[in-house]
Design a protein that fits this description.
This protein has two helices and eight strands; from the N terminus they run H-E-E-H-E-E-E-E-E-E. The protein is of the alpha+beta class. The chain has a domain of about 70 residues. The longest helix is centred in the first third of the chain and has 15 residues. InterPro entries: DUF4246 (IPR025340), DUF4246_C (IPR049192).
């Protein structure tokens, strides 16, 4: 695994722009990292929305290993990655999986096919994507939409 990480870093450094503040591609698809793309008002709203997840008893908190209790993993993506050829996903129009119906809907959806490997990326695993989140409901709940 460490060897893979080193190879990925070597690949990414060849794609990095030296222009200060520019966004960099960090995963397959269109996921970008930027320190300036999110307006302050949106950052504040996101922080307020996450606060209830952070305000849990100390014994329930999962601090990222080696972070000296600076990085709280609300849901650690490495523990629950997409496994191509095994993970199922709902398609458009197949509704949502919620905490209320997740057991009943277990096993639904199509198995994600293995893709052709792209330089610098794994064709076997991926952190869970969150392509679209619906926050328009009156119940104040966020739901991930299938892409």
């Amino acid at each position: 695994m460490a060897e893979w990480c080193m190879e990925e870093l070597k690949y990414k450094v060849t794609r990095f722009s030296e222009k200060p503040g520019s966004a960099i591609k960090v995963y397959n698809g269109d996921v970008m990292k930027s320190d300036t793309a999110v307006p302050y008002s949106m950052k504040a709203e996101l922080q307020a929305a996450v606060r209830p997840l952070e305000e849990i008893p100390a014994w329930k908190k999962y601090w990222h290993p080696g972070s000296d209790e600076k990085v709280l993993d609300l849901v650690h993506p490495s523990l629950f990655p997409v496994v191509y050829g095994r993970t199922r996903a709902l398609g458009k129009g197949q509704g949502f999986v919620t905490s209320e119906n997740c057991i009943a809907r277990c096993g639904e959806g199509d198995v994600l096919k293995k893709q052709e490997a792209l330089d610098g990326y794994s064709a076997d695993f991926q952190w869970l994507p969150c392509s679209e989140v619906d926050i328009s409901g009156d119940d104040g709940q966020a739901r991930e939409e299938a892409s």
